[in-house]
Amino acid sequence: MVATTFVTLRHRLIKQGICLLFILIFVILGIALQGSISPSNIAFISSLFLFSTLEIFSCGITKKQRLVSDFVDKPYAWEKRVWTNLVLVLLGGIVSVYLVLLANRAELNSWALFNIFNVPFAAVMLLSFLFLDLSHYTVHVLHHNVPALWRFHVVHHNDKVYDVTNAGREHPFITATIKLAEVIVIILFGVPPLAYAIYAPAQIASSLFFHSNLKIPDAVDRKLRWLLVTPSLHYTHHSSIARDTDSVYGSILSIWDRFFGTYKNAPDMGIKRMEVGVDTFSNQNMGVLQLLVLPFLNWSKLRRPHQG
After folding, report:
1. Alpha-carbon distance 28 to 239, whole Å?
2. Residues of the chain falling short of pLDDT 70
3. What is the pLDDT of residue 288?
4. Alpha helix (H) residue ranges in 107-241
5. Tell me, what's the pLDDT at 111?
6. Could you tell me if 130 and 179 are in contact, meaning their C-beta atoms sit under 8 angstroms apart?
7. Rounded to whole angstroms, what are the CA distances from 164 to 68, 106, 155, 308?
8. 279 in helix, strand or coil?
9. Which of 18, 24, 123, 268 lies most in the core, judged by the most C-beta atoms within 10 Å?
């Protein structure tokens, strides 16, 4: 009985099988719709395969991750969760395609700041990466602090399991706000397509990396945290307690959290005792359509996590 209450090797193997099938579908759809596989899609496919494979052999951030009763008592609930998270990736990708097309045209504006001040190419590339990453941080803060946005962002946080598939568990509206923030930066500064082509795949790989339930040696993790968001660092952000959830908003770089005072080294209850999810919302056996309409349901179910 004890074995069925945790994410076991069986669960991880089932998830890996679904991820491999999803990657095949993703590649076929990408070629059919776009004629090729973009760098961002390559980053997603390779990162999903790599980190889902590593999760099979990893002991995990907390060594054992408990499953809520919804996954234990209901047939195929685990498979449904994995498919749901991955299908939301596809829906978000459709939204992203059109906004990225808009973003790639924005650099042509001569009145963009990089063009006005004739910024050297090397500086443009570096500043573009930093400003794009800052835009992700900023819009993520808004997702947590603007009630109307939290209603949509709760789709990402109400997953009670922390693994690589959680990275793509986002309402398409939230994906649109993230891409719109990128577009604003690109239009305002005149970010060149090359800079965006570097940042976008890096951001996707980073998100899949720090959502992975991987245990990195403490000495390595401490060094990486000075610059990057790591799995154990972002794990705190998925706590059911608001004091923890309202921290670690970074997308690639951890420097924004340090600079703006939202960096948190570990959850209040400690990493082993921390509960993942939103404690004000208990239904975990939800499909794609249910999650898409979730933001429009009774607000009492979607309020912020308790302050602890």
Report:
1. 36
2. 1-5, 68-73, 75, 100-109, 280-284, 298-308
3. 95
4. 113-116, 121-145, 147-157, 172-189, 193-210, 218-225, 231-235
5. 82
6. no
7. 18, 32, 15, 27
8. coil
9. 18
